[in-house]
Amino acid sequence: MAAERTGAYDEMFTPGQEPRKSYGQVAGALRELSLADVTARADSMARTFLDRGVTFDFAGEERPFPLDIVPRVIPADEWTVLEQGVAQRVRALEAFLNDVYDKMAVVTDGVIPRQLVTTSAHFHRQVHGFEPAGGVRVHISGIDVVRDAAGTFRVLEDNVRVPSGVSYVLENRRAMAKGLPEAFGQQLIRPVEEYPRRLLSALRKTAPSGVDDPTVVVLTPGVFNSAYFEHTLLAGLMGVELVEGRDLICRGNRVYMRTTAGEQRVDVIYKRIDDEFLDPLQFRADSMLGCPGLVNAARAGGVTIANAVGNGVADDKLVYSYVPDLIRYYLNEEPVIANVDTFRLEEKEAREEVLDRLDELVVKPVDGSGGKGLVIGPDASKEELAALRKRVVADPRGWIAQPVLQLSTVPTLSGDKFGPRHVDLRPFAVNDGDDVWVLPGGLTRVALKEGSLIVNSSQGGGSKDTWVLADSPEVPVETLPRPAITVRERVSVWPVESNWRDSQKEQQQ
Amino acid sequence: MLSRIAESLFWIGRYVERADGTARILDVHLERLNHLPMEEQRSVAQELLAVMGARAQSEDFGLPELLNALAYDKQSATSIAGSLGAARENARRARETVSSGLWESLNTTYYGLNQHRKDVVGTYRFCNWVLERTAMVSGLADTTVSHDESWQFLVLGRSLERADMTARMLSTRDVLSAGMSWVNMLRCAGAYESFLRTRRAAFGDQHAAEFLLLDRLFPRSIVYALRDADECLAKLDPSAQRVGFINDARRIVGQARTFLEFHRTDDLMSELPEHMERVQKAVSQASDAISRKYFNQADELAWVGEVS
Asked: Second label for A172, Cα 20 to 30 Å away, from A69, A104, A394, B48?
């Protein structure tokens, strides 16, 4: 299984074609298998996904999310750094959002221009001036990171609105445990199955004050949403109701759901709908997905919405370019993970440089997600570049430019051959107000097309199971402490056994 | 009906349920076992085999041997292949009574036993396949056989075996304490989602064990299975007494069930091993009592190799 060399950093092989230490077990397991075995297993994994309904919706069609058989392995020391970096970023963004919807001290202190915040498409004045119930805005986040050609982790973008993909992390691990069991032996891989519990406890913890036993629901746009599978999985694993907008009603700034036993109060809504569709009274009046009155209920503190409405301003890619400054400003710390160098096109010099080098750079719309609207200079045709130039000049606030990153690669099975494919990583963080917990690993997305740098599932991307190795046996295995009971010294509670005929005899005597 | 036929049906119920339970246990534990270092794997494999009621033949009994003993060994009534073979044999002896649907599904299952690779990955698939087949067999039994005496015997066997299997499932916790989480325990019984919906935020060992042992609505819980068995016994012998029970089996099953149902404890986990042992004992005694009363045979089939 030879990896071809590209300019990128390969996660499995050193430049000398030796497998790195962390991949030893994986390489060993794959070496033992014939190619026919590997493809047979990959096929059966794909079938299992389809059977289990692990799909995403692509143009109205349910497709299995392709899982590659080679896992991505992150050694413990690298993970520790990533974990800190992600948590730090989440804390900074949390502080930023609290500030932006309050006094805007960050603007007054000149860290970020006021205009930048107020012109962001996802800055919602509707939620200005109140602190959400529970005090948390970024309950769940997915911070996309990539490794550049030198192997350094860099943050590519922040997702603090509705980050999706965690269901694939959970499902991938289950599939891999059955698909490539040989690679698991003898090394400790940190488990991911506690995610739903962590999420539920964070959501319950941030419920409005005064509620003893908060009711949590997951709010989905419905079965046609591309991430519907994830909504069902998370609701199922948390054991909570999956509701649609029409199941909810707001009255007196409280939210209720219609159940067979009448209306039941809802305290925490895990919102999987875009803000624009959430509340027709505040946002799009034509939205049928939301429930009128939700935003007012949140303002009055009658319900916790996770993530908070208006978080999109922190996802803005122009705000992203200020995040290192925000970290210094709010936390008084140096950023643990660096950003990717970013040109702000509103600045005249940067814009001119970018327009000159349009064919070398990646240009992205500031509010895009899922790789929509992104143009990779070296791959684009002359016409595309000309069109892009026009749009950038017309709306410099709407775009950013970054150098083309050679994302790191991991060997990937394609057809009947292994080859290096580019990957990114989305670690998921859950914030319960006191503590930011980062799920060990996260979603590794891989561009299945050779040489492609676009990993989005809607554009021919797949995923890999992501293993974080534990450095010491103490850290991982999820065993609840339980009293050691050996079979001998246990208690006895059942009545003493005897044949009922025997005891009858005794009585007769 | 003929005692012999009744006995066959009773054992079809037991064997099919045994195959189902063993497949569930194997499927979940295999994952865990596979991650263990060699020596530990060996000792755990042997203990697991003991929980399932058989003894290792040799010292170097490891993972491959365990797979054979629990999944593929056709000679042993402990293994999936053995149980399904025996179920089919019983159905063959009672062919004129069982519906053709039931017979054919058992027969097809029997012939499908060999078409699986016997390594770890193959065994995962084998277990899945077994779960599908056993579900089909019990579905056909429920929908194509009249719910008369003969069906009662089948369900009786199934319920008793189910209680026994869930007890064994819970006993395996002791064997694999290292990292065997209650999540896997619940998955084993197919109870994970039901449990989450019932208990919501209350997670933990104690709750999971309680659910599998005492829940009145989850069909694979021990109390539920024993209640099913009790109902079957009552329908088979509706003679009502003013006082007590003449029927030994009813007494045994009823005592075990009521003890569990009415037992109050603050420390279920430390009592669990005893509960499990007593449930298994009650099941085997009830099975004996049923044999004596209805089947009237000197040489009765019993659960192989009781290891205490």
From this structure: B48
Contact by Cβ (8 Å): A457, A111:
no
- Contact criterion met (CB < 8 Å) for B177 and A482: yes
What are A418-473's pLDDT values in tens digits? Answer: 888 999 999 999 999 899 999 998 999 998 888 888 777 767 788 999 999 887 65
A29 touches chain B (CB under 8 A): no
Q: Is the pTM of this model over 0.80?
A: yes
Q: d(Cα A126, Cα A276) in Å, to the nearest integer?
A: 11
Taking the CA of residue A202 and the nearest CA in chain B, the distance in Å comes to: 11
Q: What is the mean pLDDT of residues B152-176?
A: 86
Residue A422 · residue A149 · CB < 8 Å: no
Question: Which residue from B minimizes the CA distance to A497?
Answer: B278
Whether the per-residue pLDDT at B291 is higher than 60: the answer is yes
Q: Give the tokens for residue A247.
A: 């199941």
CB distance from B231 to chain A under 8 Å?
A: no
Distance CA A455, CA A453 (A): 6
Of A197, A201, A487, the CB nearest to B174: A487
Of A203, A207, A200, A201, the residue nearest A267 (C-alpha): A207
Task: Using an 8 Å CB-CB cutoff, list chain A residues near B122.
Answer: none
Question: How large is the C-alpha radius of gyration of chain B?
Answer: 19
H helix or E strand, kind and range, residue B10 = helix B3-34
Q: What is the ipTM of this complex?
A: 0.72
Contact list, A206 vs chain B (CB under 8 Å): none
Chain A nearest-CA residue for B37: A186
The answer to whether A311 and A138 have CB atoms below 8 angstroms apart is yes
H/E stretch holding A145 reads strand A140-147
Task: Tell me if B225 sits within 8 A of B160, measured CB to CB.
Answer: yes
The Cα angle at residue A162 between residues A431 and A394, in degrees rounded to 5: 125
| DSSP 8-state class, residue A142 | E
Give residue-wise pLDDT tens across range A327-385.
999 999 999 999 999 998 888 888 888 888 888 888 888 877 666 778 888 888 888 88
Are B182 and A238 within 8 A, CB to CB? Answer: no
- How many other C-beta atoms are found inside a 10 Å radius of the C-beta of residue A269? 26
